[in-house]
Amino acid sequence: MPDQAQDEATATAWAREAGKQILVTSKTTETSQTVANPNGSWTLTEYTHPVRVKHGPDWTPIDTTLVRNADGSVTPKATVLDLALNAGGTGSVATPIVQAREAGKEVGLKWTKDLPEPSLSGDTATYAEVLPGVDLTVRALPEGYTENLVVKTREAAQNPGLRDIPFGLHTKNTTVSVAPGAGRATPTSGAQPSDGLEVKDDTGAVVFTGDASRMWDSSGAGSEAERQLGEGGGRREAVMGVTLSSDTVVISPDQAFLADPATRYPVTLDPDTLCSTCGMQAHAVVQSGYSDAHNYNASDGDLSDLKAGYETDDRAGTSRSYLQMNTAQIAGTVVHSASLNTTVTHTHNCSNAADTDLWLTGPFGGDITWAHQPGWSYYMSSVNVANCGNAPDVTGQFNATHAAQDAAAGRWPNVSLALVEDGEGGGVATWRRFALNPYLQVNYDSPPNLPTALSMQNGLLPCTSGANRPWVYTKNPQLAGKVSDPDGGTLLAKFAVAYGALGHNVYTHDNGANLVAVGTPGQNQQATAQLAAVPAGWINEDGIYNWSMQASDGELSSNWVGNCEFTVDSKVPAQPVVAMPSWTHPAVQGDPVEFSIWTGMATDNFYDIDHFIYTTDGSEPQVQGSPSVPATQSTDANGKMVAVGGIKATALSGNQNLIKIKSVNKAGMPSPDAQCVVLPESNPTLDPPSCSYHVQPLTPGKNLVAAWGADEPSGTALIDSASSTPDNATLPTHPATASGGVTRGVGYNHGTSWTHPDTGGYSDGVKGAITLDGTSGYAQTGDRVLDPSKSFTVAAWAKLADTTHSQTVIAQDGTQAMPFALQYNKENNAWAMRVTTGDSATPAAAWAFSSKPPQIGVWTHVAGTYDASTQVATLYVDGAKQSTVIAQPWAATGPAVLGATKWSGARADFFHGSLDDLQVWQRTLSGQDVHDLAGVAVPLANYGLAEGCGPELISATSRVPSLQASWALGQTSGNTAADSTGYGNTITLTGGYAWVPGHGGGGLQLDGATGYGSTSGPVVNTAESFTVSAWVNPTDLNAGYTVLSLAGSHAANFVLRYDKAANRWAFGMSPADDAAAAMTWATGTSVPQAGVWTLLTATFDSTASRLRLSVNGKHEADATAGAPWTANGPLLLGAEPGAKNLFKGVLDQGRVWSRDLTDDQIAAMNGLRYVDTAAQATAAASGGVSLTTETDGSGSPTGCAAQFDNTWTGRLVGPRPANLRTDKSFTVEGWVKHTWTAADVAASGQVDPATRTLISTDEAQFSPLFLSYRPYKDANGRDHGAWSLILTVPNAGGVFASTEYSDLDAVDNQWTHLAASYDAATKTMSLYVNGELQRGKFYTASGNATGVDVGASIGGLLMGSGIWTGQRTNNLNGGVAGVRVYSGLRGTAGINFDKRADDPGNLFGVTH
Fold first, then answer.
1. How far is Cα 440 from Cα 437, in angstroms, rounded to an integer?
2. What b-and-e string marks burial along 65-76, b requiring 16 or more CB atoms within 10 Å of the CB?
3. What confidence tens digit (pLDDT) does each residue in 595-607 have?
4. For residues 1116 and 1095, what is the distance between their CA atoms, to the nearest angstrom?
5. Checking CA distances to 298, which of 256, 659, 693, 729 falls within 20 to 30 Å?
6. In angstroms, rounded to a whole number, what is the distance separating the alpha carbons of residues 55 and 278?
7. CATH architecture, domain 704-936
8. Which of 429-438, 801-810, 835-844 is predicted with the least confidence, judged by mean pLDDT?
9. Boundaries of each LamG-like jellyroll fold domain copy (predicted)?
10. β-strand 4-5 against 22-24: which pairing, if any?
11. Per-residue confidence at 1052, pLDDT binned at 50, 70, 90?
């Protein structure tokens, strides 16, 4: 066991354990030490003056030895006062001889010229021959120093320079003044008291004291007087004159003394300095022969020790020593014993020495003299120890218990003591000298304070009695109270528990044999002592009990406190019964609903039910955090005691609503879930087995009040698009205006998801966001958006840039604060739904927090809901419910604020990062609603892989059945352009035209004035989907030039042209055959160039009424058209109806298809390969993979796909799809054909024995997902090949893989559509085969599709291969097409839509 501890608690514990004293290092000071004793008491040792100093973290004994440091400076090793001696040498005249420093205050004397380098001996430095025959010596003292001029010979004394000796004065933050009468005349001569010096700080407090008036000779050296009196005994002394100016001290030695034949040389002149604030206590020696001498804290020369008694060796006569000791630490304690411990350095007698007595005296100060002594209070003890031979370490111990006890009882800060002769007339037998620094040692203890803050159950139940006594459900409750002790340290807590109310104890138990030990932080600082559980056997039955506690330090104990009563109710409440009253008829999501509740008692006629808790979303009701209603005592028809209650709520969910209710007794124990019943008089809508009822769901946009997609490319306005959602056309709009540090950036999705149907390519639009700087940027509406006192929902996609401060996603303004804020909370490092109590500067708040900290730089969906019927606020993150809080927002009337909130009337909590898709409802979305909102699929990547059909698309003999017209424009003469399709859509040319070289062979040049071409009639049904395409090379860009158009009776149905005003390519469609109707335009983004060949392709999707424009094979623009109509007029080449906007330049390879080509098919026409048409990126192909056109046995084309050959080396690696996080919800899809030929069967068996991967990601060690073909053996050992989904998550052994197999075996050599999704909110994996959700075999931790974790992907998209243990593996042999990646959940309907759209045979009319 160590001998010392940092704090009192540890010291007392170790002392008790080890049976020895333990030093408390935190209580150590320069003058005192405190130790803990094994019995719980303490011992204080208090010195008169410092005995140690602190160097860094450690205490060092006082050591005045002088040392020369590495930098040449001279300092003592360890003294209280910071001393620096002059190092001597050239330039030393500018430095004080000794510089004394204390707390930024300095003083010192300077010599008049450079000093020699000093010689060091112990505590003394000697500067030799500073004047002829005169040395300057400096001696370091614990609290100061002496500075002496030593005149070595009588001849040296005759130097005129010794008449007046000037010293330069150095001060810093101090002033020096004369202290009249404060000089010290020594008792060996007739010198009279002289004036001293005082050094004061800026406040006038004395920091240093000094005396420049003393001089003495060496006549006492070796004399009997020196032996009896100590240092200075027998010497002759005189008083010097002292003159003080602002920067000089001049001493004037007594010239008569120097010339006196009786003066024995050397003679010492002594200007000294002491620190008056360094020593915490004081001493003084007074002598009858010098009744006016001021010797307060004098500690050098003949006053370097303490004296008591009578002597005759000089005129001092009787001496007495006064001591002042610090007793603040023992104030109020119980003192067992105390002693003043001294070292007797000399007595006159060797035997028959008289006693020295110890007395308690009144206080004394700097004015103490023999003539001005404090009063004596009482005698305490005596010491009679002889030491005439000056032996070392002779101890004299005085009993000081009486004084210490009075000091403790009176709470004196210090005590004054006197060492005096025993009686009068004892003569020299009373003479005794003591070492200068005696110490007071006190053994004490303090009774612990009364325990406070008594409580039960971790502070939840404060101590009380009577009718309000608390209830507990356990027979082993936790008891606690705060204990403290004036001395600090470890305390022992005793608890007693009695059966019965106060005054009626039946029996009592206590823990006297096993007290609870607890360490306190320090003196009178509380610590909690707890009985973690009342031991078994103390409480044997339910009923009323009372308890108390006391504290002990092992020696002393406090009084008992407490008398705390409590009731034990250990029985689980009876199951309640619930019915839906006949007057409530919920039919639609959001309708009000009511329930009636009643329950019997667990013990007959013992009423103990306090309230009912409930949930309306199917989650389990919690005693803390769930809404509640009070229970009312009643009786049933049989007169038995029951509790009844009623709930008013809202049908929160669409379709099924689950109600769960529990009763809670007064001890806080919940019952089992309630039993739902249908009674003759109740509403039969409630289904008893499931305790649920059904209502019609609301559409997503119902009660939507604002929606900001943040997709605007620039500007400060954020459009509120809520009115564009279904059934909301009449909604008022609430546009928001950005201010401060707000810019536009790339967002998470396009528009406002869920509320706006993903039709007509809506989700493919521009994905924008607002990016905020975190210091000044935010946006706000111009008016109130919602009433927060009613049910509401707020939601947004948020991407944090950092977590350096709390940051708000969305809030609403009050005057001083906000009623709610959906935000990141810095203190808890969590997403939060914050609800405040009122519109004050700093209102209190209730919080619902996320269970995990946010991810920086990751798009995260956050939503907050409030149900006014239950006053429950709920936080959701990425569609998963996080927590709830009971709260009640107030009806603020201010605007909605995006990216900041209001606090103390000012903007606060600015968001740093990006916000997108912010939506607000004046209703409570259900948990399923929020899940669906957060899980809306967002397209991230789309590799159609149809580019292998590019040659077939543009071939003069194309076999694409939808090709309606194809004009190679390669003639060299004539006025017609032939259609190679066989449909006879010949173009007749007119005006200024010519046959010239084109993009691929010949081309048609039009003059822009009169030349154009026209078919005889329509070439495609414009009421259905179609595609038009042509290569164009404009001569200039000086006007609007039309490439293709189709005429109706009164207007053009569509126009593909160069738009001069926009300086862009554009594709437009008219909503009606009306010349006055405004066309809808899809305007490109690239800048057209004259004289450069450009491929223009435009498509119309009649199902979605969507028109799209691609330039050079890359999609650039789209727009939503009106209702399609059939144009019966001709197709015009190079003009619009009425020969308007005639093209000027060269045209080539015009084509029309009766279907909307896909983006990858369009890319193929410009020779692009492996294109991700969602992100306009390109995958890298390597090994045995190529883009091909599949054919049947007759050679007819049947599909377009990427083919991976049987070298099993092919792979495609695409860039990492933006915002793809496999640890969040995602969906991947693709068409795959697993090739397994007859040759393969012959070589390896009927079933391919290797895993073949369609989609994974390119990682360093393990792909987090594998959508694959995978072999397995059934229970009978039979081989199967199945489609599979594998999801992995890192663990200590590498990864844990969760696997799902398809319901049926994979069919080789046949196209199959696979899709896989991961729902992070529910941790569910899903595998689809040909659009059907599989329910096959699961190899997961849960044994089913749930409870699955997935690691986060960081690599690119990998097709045809996977990564396992850092190696590319599972290579595919077969075909791949239509690979799509989404963040979110595509769902069955979306997957089947993609399946049809991406069918590799679509181009050729083949359906798989």
1. 10
2. ebeeeeeeebbb
3. 999 999 999 888 9
4. 12
5. 256
6. 15
7. Sandwich (2.60)
8. 429-438
9. 790-928, 1024-1160, 1224-1389
10. parallel
11. very high
The full set of domain ranges for the chain reads 4-59, 79-276, 301-445, 476-568, 577-695, 704-936, 963-1154, 1180-1404
C-alpha to C-alpha distance for 622 and 1242, rounded to whole angstroms: 64
User: Distance (Å, rounded) from C-alpha 35 to C-alpha 24?
Assistant: 6
Q: What mean pLDDT do residues 572-589 have?
A: 95
CATH fold of 301-445 reads: Jelly Rolls (2.60.120)
For range 743-747, the mean pLDDT: 96
Average pLDDT rounded to a whole number, residues 1267-1291:
95
- Under the banding of pLDDT at 50, 70 and 90, the label for residue 192 is low
The CATH class for the domain spanning 577-695 reads: mainly beta
Q: What is the pLDDT of residue 424?
A: 67
HSE at residue 1335, side-chain half, CA atoms within 13 A, is 0
Q: pLDDT confidence of 199, banded at 50, 70, 90? A: confident
d(CA 1345, CA 1337): 9
Distance of alpha carbon 427 from alpha carbon 185, whole angstroms: 24
**Predicted pLDDT of residue 193:** 59
Query: Could you say which DSSP state residue 900 is in?
Result: -
Give the span between the Cα atoms of 1201 and 1206, in whole angstroms. 16
CATH number belonging to domain 1180-1404: 2.60.120.200
| Residue at token pair 């004050």 | 840
> What's 476-568's CATH class?
mainly beta
- SS3 sequence of 456-505: ECCCCEECCCHHHCCEECCCCCCEEEEECCCCCCEEEEEEEEEECCCCCC
User: Quick one: how many helices (H) and strands (E) in the chain?
Assistant: 10, 107
Same fold, 476-568 and 963-1154: no
Note the pLDDT of residue 279: 45
How far apart (Å, rounded) are the C-alpha atoms in residues 1257 and 1384?
Answer: 17
Check if the beta carbon of residue 1156 is closer than 8 Å to that of residue 1027.
Answer: yes
DSSP assignment of 519-535 equals E-SSTT--EEEEESSPP
Count other Cβ atoms within 10 Å, centred on residue 673.
17
The pLDDT mean for the chain works out to 93
Longest dimension (CA), the chain: 156
Report whether 727 contacts 703 (CB < 8 A).
no
CA–CA distance, 651 with 813 (Å, rounded to integer): 29
- Which structure tokens are listed for 794? 């707020």
> Which pTM was predicted?
0.69
What amino acid is encoded at 735 in this protein?
P
Give pLDDT, residue 181.
67
The answer to whether domain 963-1154 has CATH 2.60.120.200 is yes
